[in-house]
Amino acid sequence: MTAFSFEAALGVVALAVGWTIGVDPLSTIPITDDSLNNNLLATLWGIAAALPLLVALLLINRLPLRSFTEIRRFVDERVLPLFQPLSLFELGAISFAAGFGEELLFRGLLQVGIAERVDGPFGIVIAVAIAALLFGVCHWITPAYAVLATLAGVYFGVIFLLTGNLLAPLVAHALYDFVALVYLTRRSEYKSA
Q1: Is the pTM for the entire model greater than 0.85?
Q2: Where do the domains of the chain lie?
């Protein structure tokens, strides 16, 4: 449950920092009588947006490139032992906390906060780039993984821009994490059997 607590704490930190500096990370998830359709559409966008990430996971897991082999080795040796004993419910809880906490922090706080403070036509581009770069650095397990996480951060940032609703990247992130964790932990069970 340490992973769940850490990921959820990121969301709390994003809310606290946002409150301090005047940026509400939840402001792009409308909660009004009229927002149900908007939030449902954003959720559907998030589900669809998880699919390309899952295809990328399959490619990374199968292509014999050296940088991908290093990622697989790290995941197999250091990450999977932490997650394999967990139930589907626990994997889902951690995945939801990661999608919620990380998207509140990187897209809801950083991307929005930077975009509001950088004037000019490139403010949004700079905001997406900085939030994505920090996302990649925070996911550094190998250099290649950091690059892939940065690209995922750009992807989540663009989804957020296109939908205008933080639910879209939040759902994409959480769903990807859940399916990836289930696939990787259960795949290795069958490999060892």
Answers
A1: yes
A2: 2-24+38-192
